[in-house]
Amino acid sequence: MKEYKAGTYILHKGYKPFNPSFINDDIDWKLEELAPLLQDASIWLGKLNSYADLIPNIEFFIKMYATKEATNSNRIEGTRTTFEDAITPLEQIKPELRDDWHEVQNYIQAIKYSIDRLKELPISMRLIKETHQILLQGVRGEHKMPGEIRKTQNWIGGSSLKDAFFIPPEPNMLSELLTDFEKFLHNENLQVPEIIKAGIAHYQFETIHPFLDGNGRTGRLLIILYLISTGLLNKPVLYISDFFERHRMSYYDSLSMVKQTDNMTQWLKFFLSGVIETSQNSIKTFDELIKLKKETETKIAKTGKKAVNGQRLLELLYSQPKVNAQIISKELGLSIVSVNNLVKTFIEIGILKEKTGMSRNRYYTFEDYIKIFR
Question: Does the pTM of the predicted model rise above 0.85?
């Protein structure tokens, strides 16, 4: 097995882009050093997967998981959208925050699209490019070739190539690097656990930086896609960007250290720690969701004739926990009068809260539910 070498800096036109080594090879990834974390990560990810499979109507909660992932992944890139903003309808978002809001909504759409697409298309650069196009549609970066591999040099940090913190490989190197990357994802002969491959793939993608914009978001979404494509996850319930966002400097430092020292181990330790903590938090979230679901359904069951529509409203709130009368009327096909009566009941039994304090244009929130994800 080969010793891992991260790559080389090559002088080109007065600057030094980094050319990463191929990874589709029998490389010594120092798995013995990772064994304790790898075992724990495998156990906790397996528990999370089993847990998610056992929860009835889990699809109700998936959008909130996607929203959590989207919000944190975009915040790493500097957007100001909070989780509360992300679940708020556009008309309630301040004009100066709407571009950020749209970026998060694009990420949510990209998660759903790419996971659905996995049913008919294997994880590949084709799928990644389609996903990237959705991420950048109608937002900052929309003029930077969404869905297309870059044809010009990009850089990270600094104001230009002259003072950049990191310069990814030249465009003419991308074809070979991405072919190697894609082969690595599908090479079943490599003696590398799938969780480790997910971590290596994320590092390699971020280092190649194949797009002019949106590489970070795409690379983090790639982790979810890879785990689902290998069967380690059946549903997108591992929002690891939350861990990356809370440990942002360690995230960047661990990725940078690979290129500086040829040491992939530190990055993989950080990555596996993220898988463990995120899996544990996701299971805790499920426990709280199940408890809240039972308590809320018990309250609704006591509302008599309103119970049937009450259950329908509850199911709507699982994916859209901030609503107004018009949204409820449209989604449930009920008159505004019926909606207002139903909402009044939900407020009385402690499910919904009205926070605007206005007599018109009122919005209602499923606060106990939002708290679980917040």
Answer: yes
